[in-house]
Design goal:
Elements: H1 3-32, E1 34-37, E2 43-46, E3 54-55, H2 61-64, H3 72-75, E4 78-86, E5 92-100, H4 104-117, E6 123-124, H5 134-139, E7 142-143, E8 161-163, E9 171-173, H6 200-207, E10 211-212, E11 219-221, E12 224-226
Parallel strand pairs: 3-5, 6-7
Antiparallel strand pairs: 1-2, 4-5, 8-12, 9-11, 10-12
């Protein structure tokens, strides 16, 4: 084979290799790059948007019950559940509910129901974050279940109740001239996250066998559901 023929086939081989490489690069770019047409009709790459879940609470069980005054017999009844919800910023958040083991499946169901329905939950953080102060938790519009307080009558003392957006759904006295709780909170049913008699979230709780605080004799405790 002459030298010229050898050179010819080498050149053909190089052209073939370069052509294949360019095709592969082009294919890779199509799979990973999103483009848009600019005002001058040129294709330009744009960044792909990723909907990141915002973490409101990521405690261990030990952290969630730290410094509670509850006895071990009560603590042993509890479970810490990760929940997701649509928050007031219109983004998905992850929080946690410390509740009784008997309510675990109910809590998982109602949070999925609220998320699927587009019902807003401001936040869901175990009350240890508020130094076990129910008042501070409510004032911060925090959704929660277990708080060891008023043990003679409160279902929260055993995690058998859950409060939903307390500031959006304040306790209001029926006859007594007392301030709403949390203080300064006003009921406005036009706000997403607020409950009323015909609300689908209220109906779903009742379907699961819960008593709604709106039915209490002395006050409308609209954020409260218990079993």
């Amino acid at each position: 084979m002459t030298s010229n023929v050898k050179h010819y086939w080498i050149i053909i081989l190089l052209i073939f290799v370069i052509s294949c490489t360019n095709k592969n690069n082009s294919s890779d770019n199509n799979e990973t790059t999103i483009t848009e047409i600019s005002s001058d009709n040129k294709l330009e790459p744009i960044a792909e948007k990723v909907d990141t879940i915002i973490i409101d609470s990521d405690m261990t069980f030990e952290e969630a019950v730290k410094n509670t005054k509850a006895p071990k017999t009560v603590i042993d009844q509890l479970v810490l559940i990760d929940v997701q919800y649509l928050s007031t910023d219109n983004r998905t958040h992850k929080g946690q509910i410390l509740t009784n083991k008997k309510l675990e499946e109910d809590v998982r169901h109602i949070f999925k129901f609220m998320l699927d329905s587009g019902f807003v939950i401001d936040k869901a953080i175990p009350v240890v974050q508020y130094n076990w102060s129910d008042s501070l938790s409510m004032a911060d519009n925090n959704t929660y279940s277990f708080c060891y307080r008023n043990v003679s009558y409160s279902k929260h003392a055993h995690g058998m109740a859950i409060d939903i957006n307390p500031r959006f759904n304040p306790l209001r006295w029926k006859k007594e001239n007392c301030p709403n709780q949390p203080e300064g909170a006003v009921l406005d049913t036009t706000i997403n996250g607020t409950l009323h008699i015909e609300h689908i979230v209220v109906k779903e709780f009742k379907k699961m066998g819960y008593k709604w605080g709106h039915q209490f004799s002395r006050y409308y405790d609209d954020h409260h559901f218990e079993k």
